[in-house]
Specification:
The protein is an alpha/beta fold and 536 residues long. Helix content is 44%, strand content 10%.
Length: 536
């Protein structure tokens, strides 16, 4: 097992075991234990070497520790092998179909005998599934549509996946003497959330020698090799979208040799346009006036306002999360564990909240110069109320509201549900406002412009969730929110200390939305932040 893949491999096998156990209808607590262990190990900041490294972790006992030990020794687990004897490994692919969970996936397998997305697609498209098992025609149609989408999505890359590929390629080529420079270009360099491939540019005088090394790389990697003296020009050329690039090319005419990208823009008397803005939506006009926004940067962030701990479904205790924030140079963080109704995530009861506050008071005394805000991520119930009594909400420094259930409501109902929730005088932030999971779940139906307008008028902060699976809000809605006077918080929704690193994805998304530090409340000092949230 490769050094960098150990935790990921162990986590993936434990997650697969959880899926297969749930398919079989095993005890829900056993399933949850495997899922929690998978999340915990995936979020560890260090490589695990033995079962001793995991059995000391909260929620991981000897039984799972022994399985981890076996995976470390053999690269697999006998339990996992037994399960895939009973349920083909490919059945897990059915989980990529929107709306299909483990139990439905198993039901599809039992009804059809299909053991992969491709097999299931073939059965449906040739009409051989009609009248099979207990699947109704309408259900089959939904599955068919879902498979087509899932198969299409398999060809795409999220932002973080593209970055991972780029890092691997860069590491592989870094010691080759005739590789003079390397950079990410295309949509990934602009921070696009979804891309068809990872565009990489290499400066080298030895194109043919280099091609022999890179020709067998993943089909999702598109590498271009250019002469070193042309590297700045081609970095520019392959970064912006067609509209932006074409207009700049017309202005620079035939010149191709530049010392830097900055020189390209300055040569034609334009302010340098950061990659995230090169979308052909007015940035060139503003650059000609030297009036581009001073985009937010990671160093502007002073704290994270959406963090989970062991109290709910996080994998680290509060003091560890605080220490990790302090290492990042933050001045504050908010502990916002889940509320009671989200049982699957270990949601906190009012008494749990009171107990957590007692722990927080003890921790606060040990952290000179760093502030921990008492918070909650309160679930927005279907009727728009929050699942936390007013007396608890009143005792908190910060309240995040979010939707975690009933995603399929009609637009009018969902809009009214969210508006009612954020009308609550104790709510400060609306988290992951559209509910999407990239390449997995579409946004729910909601009049988001109405939500943004209300938020701008009432001082509700809209979250930019930095989790690479979410990136919610997206850049289009961020720009619209900014126009409507909305303030934002770039949060990680961290469930482990490692997740704090995801802030970079939120920042790049905010930059694509033209945000400056002043638009984002967690760039403020703690006193200014309190002034904003207490105004509610």
């Amino acid at each position: 097992m490769e050094l960098g893949n150990v935790n990921e491999k162990v986590s993936e096998i434990l997650s697969a075991i959880a899926d297969f156990l749930e398919m079989k209808g095993e005890n829900v607590y056993r399933v949850m234990a495997f899922r929690k262990a998978a999340r915990t190990i995936a979020g560890l900041p260090r490589r695990i070497e033995s079962k001793e490294d995991v059995i000391v972790l909260p929620g991981i006992g000897k039984a799972i520790g022994d399985i981890v030990d076996e995976i470390l020794r053999r690269g697999t687990s006998s339990l996992y092998e037994e399960l895939i004897e009973e349920i083909p490994e490919g059945v897990r692919e059915f989980l990529q179909i929107q709306g299909v969970g483990p139990k439905t996936a198993f039901s599809i397998y039992k009804s059809t005998g299909a053991s992969s997305l491709e097999e299931l697609y073939e059965l449906i498209s040739t009409g051989r599934l009609k009248g099979t098992g207990n699947l109704k025609e309408k259900t089959i149609e939904k599955i068919y549509s879902g498979i087509e989408k899932a198969m299409e999505k398999k060809k795409l890359l999220r932002l973080d996946q593209g970055y991972t590929i780029y890092t691997a390629v860069k590491d592989m080529l870094k010691n080759i003497p005739y590789v003079e420079d390397i950079t990410l270009v295309g949509g990934l360099r602009r921070g696009k959330e979804i891309n068809s491939d990872a565009d990489i540019l290499i400066a080298s005088k030895e194109e043919e020698r280099l091609k022999a090394i890179i020709d067998d790389m993943d089909s999702k990697i598109d590498i271009k090799i250019v002469p070193p003296e042309m590297f700045p020009y081609y970095t520019f050329l392959y970064t912006g979208n067609n509209i932006h690039t074409k207009r700049i090319e017309e202005m620079i005419r035939d010149k191709r040799i530049f010392n830097s990208e900055e020189e390209i823009y300055h040569t034609i008397d334009l302010q340098y346009v950061p990659p995230e803005l090169r979308e052909g939506i007015g940035e060139i006009e503003l650059a000609s006036e030297y009036n581009l926004p001073a985009l937010i940067s990671p160093s502007d962030i002073k704290g994270d306002l959406h963090i989970h701990s062991l109290w709910s479904d996080g994998t680290a205790n509060i003091i560890d999360m605080a220490s990790a924030c302090i290492k990042r140079g933050y001045r504050y963080m908010a502990i916002t564990d889940h509320s009671a109704s989200l049982k699957v995530a270990g949601g906190l009861s009012p008494e749990d909240i009171r107990e957590q506050h007692r722990e927080l008071e003890l921790i606060r005394d040990k952290l000179d110069g760093f502030t921990i805000l008492k918070g909650i991520e309160a679930d927005i119930l279907p009727d728009g109320t929050l699942d936390m009594p007013e007396e608890i909400l009143k005792s908190l420094d910060i309240v995040i509201a979010s939707v975690h259930t009933k995603f399929r409501m009609e637009e009018k109902e969902m809009t009214e549900r969210i508006l009612k929730a954020i009308s609550n005088p104790y709510v400060n932030i609306l988290a992951h406002p559209t509910g999407r999971i990239l390449l997995e779940r579409d946004p729910y139906k909601v009049d988001i412009e109405k939500i943004l307008k209300f938020a701008g008028e009432r001082g509700i902060v809209m979250e930019i969730n930095s989790s690479p699976e979410r990136l919610d809000l997206n850049e289009t809605l961020i720009r619209e929110g900014k126009r409507l006077g909305v303030k934002f918080a770039i949060n990680t929704d961290a469930h482990s200390t490692n997740h704090l690193e995801n802030i970079s994805y939120g920042v790049i998304t905010a930059r694509r939305g033209w945000l400056e530090a002043k638009d984002t409340v967690n760039t403020y000092s703690i006193n200014d932040l309190f002034n904003i949230i207490r105004r509610r």
